[in-house]
Every structure is written in C-alpha cells, then in structure tokens.
Amino acid sequence: MTTRGTKYWSSGSIPLIGPDMLGEIIARASDISIVISEAGTVLSVLINPDHSGFSDMTQWEGRDIRDFLTPESIPKLEAQLERFMVEDQDVRAIELNHADGEAFGFPVRYTFQSIGPDGAILMLGRDLRPIAEMQQQLVKAQIALERDYEAQREYDTRFRVLMEATSEAFVFLSQSSGRIIEINSAAAAIFGASVEELRGASFAQELEGRRKTEVVSGLVTSAMSDSQQSMELMTRRKKRSVLAKPTAFRASGERMLIVRLLSAEDEETVTDDLAENLSALYQEGAEAIVFTDSDGLIRSANESFLNLIDAAHLTKIKGRSLGDFFARGAVDLKVLADNARRVGQMRIYATKLASEFGSQIAVEISATWLDHPSNPAIVFVIRDTSRAEAVRKTKASINDDGVRSVMELVGSASLKEIVSETNDVVEKMCIETAVELTRNNRVAAAEMLGLSRQSLYVKLRKYGLLSRNDS
User: What is the mean pLDDT of residues 261-290?
Assistant: First the structure.
C-alpha cells in the first residue's frame, strides 16, 4: 500500500497532507512549534490556538533562539543540536527554559524533527508550567508539613517537660473510652505503676471498685458543675485515697478530661484558706466594701454597704456610679479614683455618705487600685465614723495643740484679732488640702470647699497659693 491507498494506517504510513493544513495540524499537535535552522535561527513559530498561556511570539522569527533562552538552557540546546546532527531522529526530548525582555519565562519540553533537505529542524514543545506549578505546590506543602512536624515536636517536648517538672499529679483521659491518654510521673507514683504501664490503660481499672461508666460520668458531672467539686477515689494497687479535680475540654473534636489528683490527707493544705477568709470578711465584715470598675460604676458591694445607704438589694445599685452615694457626688469619687489610680491607693479620705433616702453619714474611705490588665477595678473600704466623731466632740480637751496655740494669743491680741488669725490659718490649710487632693483641679477643689471658682481664685491669691500651684 502507498500513502495514497485506503489502508495506509495498517501499513504504518499516513496520507498525504496538504500544505495549507499541515501548519494547523502541527500547531494543534503541540503547545508551541518552532522551526529553526541548523545554526539556531528561528524560521517560524506556531502557537496552539487552544493554549492561552503564550503571548504573540512572531517577534522571535528571524532571531537566534538562544536570545530567548535562560543562560543555563543555552548549553543544553547546543549539545542537543550536535547530537541531532549526528543521530538524527534518535535524540531524546529535552527541557528548555524560555525568557525574554518582557520578563516572562516558562519551561518547555521539546522533541526535534528534521523536516527538509535544507536542514530545517522542527521543535515540538509541550508547556511544562502546569507541571512546574504542581511541583512548586508539592514542595511548599512538603515544607509546610515539615514545619508543622517540627512545631508539633517542639510543643510535645514542652508539654512533656512541663508534665514532668510539675510536682502536682495530672492525668489526661478520653471521655469516650475512659482510657489514660497521658499521665505524669507524680500521678503514676500515686497509682503505684510506671508512666509506660499506665499510658493507654483504663482509668477505672486502676481504681478500687469503680466501673468505667461510673468513673467517667462522675468526673464529667463534677467538671461541669459550678462548684467544681472533687471526686474521692481509691487506687487499686496502693489502696490510697485521692481527690480528683477534673476539667473538661475538647481537642481535635474529641472530648477530654484533665484530672488533677490530690492526696486526701492533703485536703486541708489544698483548701484556699486566704480566699475563703477574704470572702468571709467581705460578706460578714463590719466595714463596707465596694468594688467598682475604673469609671467608678459599682460591680459588687457587701451587706455593710447596703446597710449604710439603706439599699434593699445589690441589684438596686449595681451598675450605678458610686459617686451617687457621696455627699459631694462626682467630686469625692474623682478625688478618690484619681489618687488611687496615680499612687495605687488612698489611705483615709473623710466625707459623708448619702443614703437612698437623703440622710447623710460621716465616713472614712480608703481606695485601692487593682491594676488587672484586662479588667482593672477600684476597691473602696468605707468605715462609719459618725459615732467616733460624736465621741471626739464630747471629749475634746483643752490640751489640743491648736487650742493651746490660740490660748497663747490671749493677752497679746484682741479677741477679734485672735479669731481672724485662726480663721486665716484654718482657711489656708483647707484650701491647700483641697487643691492637693484634687491634684490642682480648681473646679473640683472649689466644689469640694463649697466655693465658687471666682472665690477660690481670690483666696488662692490672698494666701500666695496661686503662683505656687501654677508652677
């Protein structure tokens, strides 16, 4: 059969192809087709019309193909051309990286075919960019996996060091299986076995007379309760009574329990006596205690404070400003809060507390700033001094230094002069104290003293305090 016959496919031949169709067939048979001379000059470039990854390359024609190759690809092309001249069709395909002045590059796998007596060579190319992109993704994924693996190893090492370094006994349990996922040496010693023996073992089997469902459900119930009560257990090997304090959490979708084990004989030392005592002092103490936020809004207050202001319940005052219950209102609150925030605490501040029904009580207040990073607060301790003031007034003695200094003026000055001088001294001291307490806030000082701003300025100038405070 000839190529013009009807059975050319079975004989390994192909039909004659018209010149007008040959170019399109070659273009569609590959992604890019380049015809070059033996010297490497580009004679023609054909791009597969279905391939959108190449721009117009007609500017390549008439130029040396080496101008469009990366430096490392030029020796590969020259070596391939030398082999092709000698071996003709027996050379293997090669991969070349293209680049030009338009700053784009792409890898292509080429096969070489001789197409004429003039030495023209047809290079049929397959775009390797999809493969290269996939390889890059695989490399990035591999690098990410290695980083995750190293990070996991680092976290695992930190976790194990922390577990072994702590003197407290901890056990990690799976809620679904009831098995020990992880345990430290302190907990293993309580059970009388090694860490390796206990890891993966049933937690209930290490206890005396306990079923798995009973143990796990009891621990979960204890962990979910508001009081977080302990669960008393007895170890099987050492017959040792322990208290289990569980905490529930979820890891990668699995419900887990971390159980802190405490010896029953250590129960007294575990109890937080300080917290209990402070709580009892807050609830039952004689002094009124109020916790506010940084703006002075009441968060909580004890019964003693409610008694002072005649409030029926905490809900009636919670969220209100503490300044609402001071005789001088926001002025007292600002002085207390500013000084507590500035130096950490304010020891004694005398003022009057106003009840819900308008009655006033003399009190002394100390304020402490609690500098919690995310939730700062101010705690006010308020003491009723109305009885003490009454006692002091009835027992006032002429031995008081202030009275003695006034008595010394008798005989050397008239009564009017003595009263005037002592008034000036007291007035100056009061103004100085008010200015100091308000940190030179003259509006607040004037309100504290019951003066107008103009009157306060006059008195500051009178006693030479105006320029000193400005400095």
Answer: 76
- Separation CA 149–CA 360 (nearest Å): 69
Euclidean distance between CA atoms 286 and 247, whole angstroms? 37
What stretch of H or E contains 62?
none
pTM score > 0.70 for this model? no
Alpha helices in 95-184 (DSSP H): 129-165
Give phi and psi for 67, each to the nearest 5: -70, -15
Q: Which residues, listed in sequence order, are joined to residue 155 by a DSSP beta bridge?
A: none
All residues at 6 or more sequence positions from 194 whose CB lies less than 8 Å from its CB, including other chains: 188
Q: Contact at 8 Å (CB) between 326 and 355? A: no
Domains and CATH numbers, the chain: 19-127 (3.30.450.20), 166-270 (3.30.450.20), 273-396 (3.30.450.20), 404-471 (1.10.10.60)
Show the 3-state SS of 10-22.
CCCCCCCCCHHHH
Cβ 444 vs Cβ 335: under 8 Å: yes
Half-sphere exposure of 375 (CA within 13 A, CB side): 4
The answer, yes or no, to whether residue 469 has pLDDT greater than 70, is: no
**DSSP 8-state class, residue 36:** E
Helix (H) or strand (E) holding 42: strand 42-47
Q: Both tokens of residue 47?
A: 């791009």
Q: Which residues contact 447 (CB under 8 A, 6 or more apart)?
A: 328, 331
